[in-house]
Structures
1.
Amino acid sequence: MASRLWASRAASYLRISVFHRGFSSVVKDFKYADSHEWVKVEGNSATVGITDHAQDHLGDVVYVELPEVGVAVTQGGSFGAVESVKATSDINSPVSGKVVEVNEELNNSPGLVNASPYENGWIIKVEISKTDELKSLMDSDQYSKFCEEEDAKH
């Protein structure tokens, strides 16, 4: 009887663990910061947003604070904030450079960050000033492992 109970608990745990990992997605060719921002690099241009993992933990996003076009951002520095029904979190830039575009759609539809974090929910576009900084970011496999380890702590 005790072994059945143990097996039941183990199976229950595994289902929860597998479900959670499967829920948050990553995009193979993007780079990731440990503060849960993603960056899509195209030449000297970078599109930045928050990851699926981050939006999942935040809950429904109700407001996104966007920077002004032309503002300088630095790697690891805050450039805005995301406000959700649960909390407000700073958004940090994974790269240094100049903001060349902001996603104005987020002013009217902040929920795009939840619905489409890697496509329609992007936040800023940056002209990269220090491409060597990209080496310090995680690839998709490293970021997935980072998220699993972080979630295991909670």
Note: The radius of gyration is 17 Å.
2.
Amino acid sequence: MAAPNDVQIVTIPKDSADQNQCNLSVVPEVEEFDYSKRAQWLRAAVLGANDGLVSIASLMMGVGAVKDDVKVMILTGFAGLFAGACSMAIGEFVSVYSQLDIEVAQMKREKRMVENDEEDVEKEKLPNPFQAALASALAFSLGAIVPLLAAAFIADYKVRLAVVVVATTAALVGFGGVGAVLGEDEGGEVLW
């Protein structure tokens, strides 16, 4: 006997001599992936990476346009990386935690949390503020590293500024492509 969630496929032979024989095969039910969970951290990661990339590149180019000292430019970039990563993590945490509060209050109003089984399923679907904050801070740092590495090994300040612009542009295209690929479901539809 098959389990309640399994599908039975019965093959009926065409030949009248074989009509008493039937082949039973069990095909397990395919679990669907919940893309909404991935959309939460993906949004935080893409926005964090783009913000880190553009913010630090702009900060470094502004300092580099005024002062041609590579040490000052790199130090400014690292200070911006640290401050920006902290800011993004805190902002994302507060934002997602507010969303979590709203969803929990809505669930209580609708009395969905009455049965323990349903409570566990519903809690799994809730956003995780710690995960979103970590994704945002790490992504900001990843984005910020690109202009820092691009500028670190170039002595001439005019060439250094041009390299930062080119590296930032290429990284924006790359981050956009990665976000687009990760943001699609199996059917090719964009999640966010």
Note: The helical segments are 35-66, 70-109, 116-124, 129-152, 157-182.
3.
Amino acid sequence: MEQALFDHRAKPGDLIEIFRGSYEHWAIYVGGEEVVHLIPPQEESGASDLIKFLDSSTAQVRRQKLREVVGFHRFRINNLRDGECEPRERRAIVRDACAMVGRELPYCLATSNCEHFVTELRYGKPKSQQVEAAAVMGGVATAGVALAVLGAALFASFSSKDDDNERSRRRRNR
């Protein structure tokens, strides 16, 4: 997407979703082709692997040119919760985002990541679709493992009963 076209469409306070392969990074557009975002130290060094973020316990709030943050990755405006949550006033979003620049904040993939940061600024409530999706997938995987274990136990139980019945039948026939 050409920068001038993007700047024309984006409004201050919009959420910017940046696709970085194995995860999405999030920022708040503040105007003038700039964004405010929460950045863990590993991302600053150019690491893009989601696993590297597991070591981070803090992150820094930065204000940067959008093109610097996006690099060669694909991005879009994504005010993902506008249909279910009332966004705060754009001026308040930008004011609060800019006031946080330079601060070091706690960072945790599950509870306080870059998506939580921007959704709290826009909607007043921190939420992360990535975390919610991972929780659903984890729940599905757990349920699948539980069903497999239950199935194996039932099979073993029936198999054991069949073996017992076969032994009893042989003893009677002797």
Note: The first strand starts at residue 15 and ends at 19.
4.
Amino acid sequence: MTMNSKRLLSSLISFSKFSSNSEADAFKIGDILRQTRVFTNADVVEYSKVSYDSNPLHFDTQCAQNAGFPDRIVHGMLVASLFPRIISSHFPGAVYVSQSLQFKQPVYIGEEIIGEVQAINVRELRKKHLVKFSTRCLKDGDILVLDGEATAILPTTTIELQRSKEWQ
């Protein structure tokens, strides 16, 4: 099984409770959506190009080691990009309204990261739904690397399995 197949299978397993469109499967407080991602050197290079963030901590091992890291680190905002992706891939048409972030641990190239969003408040707003999420990223199964909260306006609370192309 390829890495992409494993990631897709992992995503499908995480979302299996939402596989039908019944009212019982509506997204509600306490529900969690997860996605696994391994950030590559190519991801770091491409993110640097669009963000103009060329901090040597991301490209130069010696610089990273001088700063106290064992190796180059992934841009924190690149890791945080998991959150809007998780939300929009399950609620097409969602509008990302806000995000707060607290970076807890570095993420290194090649580490498997689990991004998670959990609904902590859902309220109806003019035929749409304003949802506040607890957001976090973990590595090695349970090490918290990123923590925060996000708010999004969802067109519906009925979840869809991922329709967008899996990140390569």
Note: The beta strands are 32-38, 95-103, 112-125, 128-139, 143-154.
